[in-house]
Amino acid sequence: MSDKRFRLSHGTLQLLLSAGALLIMLGAIFHVQPNAMSYFGFTLLFKLSMPLVLAALAQMMLILLGDIDLSNGAFVGMVTCITAVWLDPSPGVAVIAYLAAIAAFVAMGWFTHARELPSIIVTLGASFIWLGIAITVLPSPGGTVPGWLTGFTGWRPPLLPMPIWVALIAAAVSQWFLMHTSFGTLLRATGGNARAVQKAGWSLSRLRIAIYAMAGGLMVASGVLLSGIITSGDPNVAPSYTLLTIGAVIVGGGAFVGGRVSPIGTVLGALTLSLAGSFLSFMHVPATWQIGAQGAILFLVLAGRVIVDRRKLA
Amino acid sequence: MSALTRLAPWTYGFIAAVAILIIMMVASGVGSLGSVLSTALIFGAISVVVATGQMFVIATGPGNIDLSVPAVLTLSAYAAMTAAAASGGSALVGLVVALGTGMIAGTLNYGAILALRLPPIIATLAWSFVFQSVAFNFGGEATLKPPAALAAFTSFRLAGVQIMPICIMGLTAVAALTLTRGVWGRRALAVGQSEAAAHFAGIRVKRVRLVSYVLCGGAAGLAGYLLAGFTGGAALNMGDTYLMEAIAIVALGGTSIAGGQANAVGIWGAALFFNLMGTMLNTFQFQAGMRFIIMGALIIAIVAIVPKPKVR
């Protein structure tokens, strides 16, 4: 205890862990393929991380509340379908559909809390609804996305590649909002101790609606970006998002107890998990073992948490 | 309404299943009912096996859930079919291998939860990736044929009555007795209600939880074995539909998702309801999208209507 000043905080250590995992994988990739260490290489390696980062932040908002979203992947898939069908020919309809989707997501969250239902079951049921709507809107993968959208996702901004900019901005904004504003503090308190917030005179249902609305908005943004990258819509494009986003939040130091999440950690977690796929290809891991190796990477990153937690107890 | 709320939560699945049967009878006559019911019984029985395993895990407390079930189911089916073929088509060898694979998977799941202090959702998810990969390397894209004796058993009828679902009903009875009368069952529910209280009462919490994950893995293995027998072999993705559905069935069957309260018999009602529902939406030729929407809305509606199971 005497060297407390020189000891990093628990949260910082967890961030260093995810960052370390990311750097180790990048190092290995550059060792095998030095050409990847370039503006273009980074763009390719992290291209698919852009939508995942936003979807992971949406998942984080619900885990912050002590809930969990098993419909994350289906919702993002539905947004890609709306985008591919309407955004190009009639942007107005698309915007209304996005708003309706967010409203439906908020209604789901409000209903869950009003009836005190387990969010794991309600979001599970909702995932079927989002998938059903997606298939009704766009029965088979396809459609078109407007040129400006593909232009945006393929844009080469100055200094840093696009995915890195997206990750940096998402991490900075969400960290500032959740950790350094009074409203963010209030939201964290809602997850940590809802009764105390209520006793202090705040409307819990309004705060929860705000959280669900933000999560819905983030998932819409994620789906729009994703359809820009794949230049189409697909109801089943992102089923893995549900589990990857939960993984990203936990790898990033979040916990299921409510009120304990880290925005920067979540962004790092999403980057780590989306890089894992490219990493395994670069390592020449056979295709049939790649998904198993992803599980192993998840374990390795999480094993670091045990060491961090030990230090905290020591 | 007051009469409705007095019904036990686990009866709702049965009531909904009977309601669907009546609707189908009115719509397409009594004649088709037999085949509809027999299909629902077979697939319902397999859902029941998976859901019963999941119920044991969920009953041991908040946060406990096994997301590796589909992967374990597929892996066990592949391992069992391979072993059965290697031993000259012995269905018994296949059964032992299926159960063994599932139980080892369950042990690995709880091992990771304990050793790495992970939330079960994450630990079982990471293992499911690994199991999936192993299953993929076992059989690749090929379908592995089941031994003849197993295929015959899963569709065997005695005087027009299918034997396989009857056997599973026997297993449900055993599971129900384990929960209400068995020492381990009572301990599992106690752990689910309050881990701390159970610990101070002298219950070895970790051992109880380990057994629940091993049972869940074994159940997934058995389901994979039976499904492979009935559908003509082990195939990749054969387990995919059994994750979300099983969790919904457990909840509709009267088990509290927060743990500490479980019902094995109610699982049958919920499983029949789900399978009949699928058949009905098919018969009425709903578009695929509409089928999903109705299914999802029903899951939410039923969870909202069913009174919360009370912890005794």
From TrEMBL, chain A:
InterPro entries, per database record: ABC_transp_permease
GO molecular-function terms, A-Z: transmembrane transporter activity
GO CC aspect terms: plasma membrane
Transmembrane segments: 12-30, 36-58, 70-87, 93-112, 119-139, 159-178, 209-231, 237-257, 264-285, 291-308
Membrane topology: Multi-pass membrane protein
Keywords attached to this entry: Cell inner membrane, Cell membrane, Membrane, Transmembrane, Transmembrane helix, Transport
Subcellular location: Cell membrane
Pfam families: BPD_transp_2
Principal subcellular localization: membrane
Name of this protein: Monosaccharide ABC transporter membrane protein (CUT2 family)
Native source organism of the sequence: Breoghania corrubedonensis
TrEMBL record, chain B:
Cellular compartments annotated: Cell membrane
GO cellular component, one term: plasma membrane
Transmembrane segments: 12-34, 40-60, 121-139, 159-179, 210-235, 247-276, 288-306
Keyword Cell membrane tagged: yes
Keywords from the named record: Cell inner membrane, Cell membrane, Membrane, Transmembrane, Transmembrane helix, Transport
Pfam families assigned: BPD_transp_2 (PF02653)
Membrane topology type: Multi-pass membrane protein
Primary residence: membrane
Repressor keyword on record: no
GO MF terms held by the record: transmembrane transporter activity
Complex formation: The complex is composed of two ATP-binding proteins (LsrA), two transmembrane proteins (LsrC and LsrD) and a solute-binding protein (LsrB).
Described purpose of this protein according to its UniProt entry: Part of the ABC transporter complex LsrABCD involved in autoinducer 2 (AI-2) import. Probably responsible for the translocation of the substrate across the membrane.
Protein name as it appears in the record: Autoinducer 2 import system permease protein LsrD
